[in-house]
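thought: user wants a sequence for this fold. calling inverse folding tool.
action: design(structure=
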């Protein structure tokens, strides 16, 4: 079982990928969607809120596809940077204080529902930037699942007692492990040394053909072992690498497997966890400018990973900006 996800950003964000691309990121995603249509493969797209305001003419065709589930990807994607650096110094949260995150999540959810009529259930922070208030805020706003970070040995959603499911990636990500755009071997070497960057797959990057081989090996191993694959593919990254050729190899394999949306996994996990709906969460009220991690100043319990058997029946270090 494979859960294919991706991120889309507004062009005014001016990412490195966007600077190297001859068309907009959303226009790339339109071409990407045609490949998904031909293969009949589902995908959850985490989209920045500003995209719905600034590029709706191109974005609406993606939102209209029955193969695409929408998720939130922040509104401004952590701009302006000075604002987020300030709050990182003030309360150890680059995402900002809880009240600001709550405002941004609600604003993103609101514009998506206004434009599409869909109320989103899934969220991924830009750059997987996870903060101490993330789970509480998302739960307060009605989000069911957050797909931040990379945990190589994970297998499906994990319930967090602060009120949401966590769904980390368990297939090697594309953007931060691929040479493309400004991410030359020399640039990557500088970045890794400058920030000591690595994730659960280490700090290495690869040319796209080798990366695709590694991803396919992982997908095959997961299918063999009954592991749910949660993977990320950025359409613009695949376009910049080789105009989707390597991705088409991956897509050929994925098309022969069961593909699911993020919400499919969560709906079933909710039912399995308490026999009805979403597990009971314990809310927390704001206790100051930043908000304490827990209302009793206690460390939250560790997420509980759900077993594969509960799913099969539905057959922070810096990360370079995209």
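)
observation: tool returned 322 residues.
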């Amino acid at each position: 079982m494979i859960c294919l996800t991706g991120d889309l950003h507004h062009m005014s964000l001016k990412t490195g990928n966007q600077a190297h691309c001859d068309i907009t990121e959303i226009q790339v995603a339109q071409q990407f969607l045609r490949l998904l249509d031909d293969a009949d493969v589902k995908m959850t797209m985490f989209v920045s809120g500003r995209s719905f305001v600034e590029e709706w003419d191109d974005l609406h065709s993606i939102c209209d596809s029955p193969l695409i589930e929408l998720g939130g990807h922040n509104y401004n994607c952590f701009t302006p940077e000075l604002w987020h650096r300030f709050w990182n110094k003030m309360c150890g949260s680059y995402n900002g204080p809880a009240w600001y995150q709550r405002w941004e999540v609600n604003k993103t959810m609101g514009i998506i529902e206004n434009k599409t009529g869909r109320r989103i259930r899934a969220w991924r922070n830009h750059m997987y930037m996870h903060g101490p208030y993330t789970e509480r805020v998302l739960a307060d706003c009605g989000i069911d699942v957050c797909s931040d970070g990379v945990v190589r040995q994970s297998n499906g959603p994990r319930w967090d007692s602060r009120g949401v499911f966590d769904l980390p990636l368990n297939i090697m990500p594309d953007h931060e492990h691929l040479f493309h755009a400004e991410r030359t071997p020399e640039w990557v070497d500088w970045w890794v040394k400058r920030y000591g960057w690595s994730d659960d797959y280490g700090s290495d990057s690869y040319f796209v053909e080798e990366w695709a081989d590694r991803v396919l090996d992982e997908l095959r191993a997961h299918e063999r072992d009954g592991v749910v694959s949660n993977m990320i593919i950025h359409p613009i990254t695949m376009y910049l690498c080789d105009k989707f050729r390597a991705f088409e190899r991956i897509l050929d394999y994925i098309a022969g497997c069961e593909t699911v949306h993020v919400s499919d996994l969560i709906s079933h996990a909710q039912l399995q966890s308490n026999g009805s709906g979403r597990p009971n969460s314990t809310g927390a009220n704001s206790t100051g400018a930043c908000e304490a991690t827990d209302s009793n100043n206690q460390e939250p319990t560790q997420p509980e990973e759900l077993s594969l058997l509960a799913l099969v029946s539905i057959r922070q270090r810096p990360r370079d900006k995209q």
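thought: summarizing for user.
answer: Here is the designed sequence. Residues 280-289, 292-317 have pLDDT under 50 and may be disordered.
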